[in-house]
Write a structure and sequence with these properties.
By secondary structure, the chain is α+β, with helices and mostly antiparallel strands. It has 10 helices and 18 strands. It folds into 3 domains: 96 residues, RNA polymerase II/Efflux pump adaptor protein, barrel-sandwich hybrid domain (OB fold (Dihydrolipoamide Acetyltransferase, E2P), Beta Barrel), CATH 2.40.50; 49 residues, E3-binding domain (Dihydrolipoamide Transferase), CATH 4.10.320; 219 residues, Chloramphenicol Acetyltransferase. Helix 6 crosses helix 7 and helix 6 packs across helix 9. It is globular.
Length: 408
């Protein structure tokens, strides 16, 4: 008797998903809770585990097809099938000794699994730097680079072959223009849809200011070693901005609110989204209840969300419910930009690169590490006065970070 392989319940507001990868094929043996396939929604990649031990009898829906919650995508039968051998060595080893259990492979996220397959790598040969030895995307890329470097060294050390000169490598003929067409991922399509939607439905306006980062940089340089030693996490700039934004949101509740139909919803909590780049595109995981977090807790929370974004481990809970967003284009070298609001939020703060510039202080021209700040806001809900004062508040707190500790 066969068991249906069904798509699990999808997160709220997600109507369907796309099958990205089948990790098992018909005839292969699987164990209970072993990952059978990955499905991609508008925001995250989900893993579908095997409901029981058995053999894949049939795959009903191939990769690339759209599926819905509860849809049957395959059949799982009882019995023994063929174990998938990744290379001849494993097949021979399996034939010699059936009693020795196979080594358990390190846990792989969908993004890492895809990279491993693309480069035809053996996961057990890759050293994982994540929690509990989990293999991250950076580990795979580092392993590929090490392999390439080793191959280059072997080629350099090997004597030249005694053959005729090889024919020149084929190159693109002069004047030929090539194109490559690939389907847009669901995440990229959803990002495009939401950005276009918010620009058409909200009255977006952006106000700018600049902040002298010297006080924050001096405090960070003075205490970063003791901070890291005590809390086990580095002291970054983002925790200062999260704390400053949280305090400013308390003073200007309109910016922590959202529009729902003809109602304004004022949020009595502070869930700040941190825009980060991931292998699948831009995502905005949410740091919850930032008003109750210490600097160390903020840094730990940001690091944890960043690791989950890189490894493809973000869940729907990580990505929903934010009341305000911070985007740091400065890490890529952006000097100035106008960030787009993350709906249904009413505002977003844009950070930019720190650049030494001449500024006037007490009638003197001095060089200071300056950063431009940008606040894009929905003018339907937020007036210009509140937006400007909100940004000035953040500037004031960052230029005198003791205020963050004294709550003044």
């Amino acid at each position: 008797m066969s068991t249906d392989i069904k798509i699990p319940e999808l997160p709220e507001s997600v109507a369907d998903a796309t099958i990205v990868t089948w990790h098992k094929q018909a005839g292969e043996t699987v164990r209970r809770d072993e990952v059978l396939l990955d499905i991609e929604t508008d925001k995250v990649v989900l893993e579908v585990p095997a409901p029981q031990d058995g053999v894949i009898d049939e795959i009903l829906v191939p990769e690339g097809e759209v599926v819905t919650a509860g849809q049957v995508v395959g059949k799982l039968g009882a019995g023994k099938g063929t174990a998938k051998a990744d290379n001849p060595t494993e097949s021979k080893a399996a034939g010699k000794s059936e009693e020795s259990p196979p080594a358990e492979a390190p846990p792989l996220s969908p993004a890492v699994r895809k990279l491993v397959a693309e480069h035809d790598l053996e996961p057990s040969a890759i050293e994982g730097s994540g929690r509990d030895g989990r293999i991250l995307k950076e580990d795979v890329l580092r392993h590929v680079e090490q392999q390439a470097a080793a191959q280059d060294s072997e080629k350099a050390a090997a004597p030249p072959p005694r053959t005729e000169a090889p024919a020149p490598a084929a190159s693109t003929p002069p004047g030929q223009r090539t194109e490559r067409r690939v389907p847009m991922t669901r995440l990229r399509a959803r990002i495009a849809e939401r950005l276009l939607e918010v620009q058409q439905s909200a009255a977006i306006l952006t106000t700018f200011n600049e902040v002298n980062m010297a006080p924050v940089m001096e405090m960070r340089a003075r205490h970063k070693e003791a901070f890291e030693k005590r809390h086990g996490v580095r002291l970054g700039f983002m925790s200062f901005f999260v704390r400053a934004a949280t305090e400013a949101l308390k003073r200007f509740p309109e910016i922590n609110a959202s529009i729902d139909g003809k109602d304004i919803v004022y949020h009595g909590y502070f869930d700040i989204g941190i825009a980060v780049s991931s292998p699948r595109g831009l995502v905005v995981p949410v740091l919850r209840d930032t008003d109750g977090l210490s600097m160390a807790e903020v840094e730990k929370g940001i690091n944890a969300l960043g690791e989950k974004a890189k490894s493809g481990g973000l869940t729907m809970d990580d990505l929903t419910g934010g009341t305000f967003t911070i985007s740091n284009g400065g890490v890529f070298g952006s000097l100035l930009s106008t960030p787009i609001i993350n709906p249904p939020q009413s505002a977003i703060l844009g950070m930019h690169t720190i650049q030494e510039r001449p500024v006037a202080e007490k009638g003197q021209v001095v060089i200071r590490p300056m950063m431009y700040l940008a606040l894009s806001y929905d003018h339907r809900l937020v007036d210009g006065r509140e937006a400007v004062q909100f940004l000035v508040t953040i500037k004031s707190l960052l230029e005198d970070p003791a205020k963050l500790l004294l709550d003044v």
